[in-house]
Amino acid sequence: MEGEAVCFFHPSNRAALPCDSCGRFICTICDLKVGSRHLCPTCLGNGLGKQKLPEIIPRRFLWSSASLWLGLLPLVAIIFTWPVLIMTGASTIIITLVGWNRPGSIVRGRRHWAAVVGLLLGLAQLGLVFGIFSLFTSMRTR
Ligand SMILES: [Zn+2]
Ligand SMILES: [Zn+2]
Q: Which of 9, 30, 119, 128 lies 20 to 30 angstroms, CA to CA, from 80?
């Protein structure tokens, strides 16, 4: 083994590269890549403990909180807006159906598509609310 560096943690393993922080030789098992730096397990542990590695913590924090909020926000929004969705959805359908046969109202020439789109959107709002409710109830019964 003369002239060949061995891993600080595994004397039987050949060293692959030195730690960027303490300079100890480490093998490929011990090589922990942090951004562009190669650290040994000890330095990574120290860095996490003393928060000397700002490139680890904010990134991890941001990703986890971003996924949490992205998963949570639509549910929170639905909890607060579903009564509004039922009201707007129902009134859209009612207004469309009431105005459908009235000459000179919304169903006329160019505006015909607006009534159809409005009806579809109203149905979509109600469908969204009922879909989410059936999802919640089916999850609860399981
Ligand atoms: Zn090190
Ligand atoms: Zn090693």
A: 119
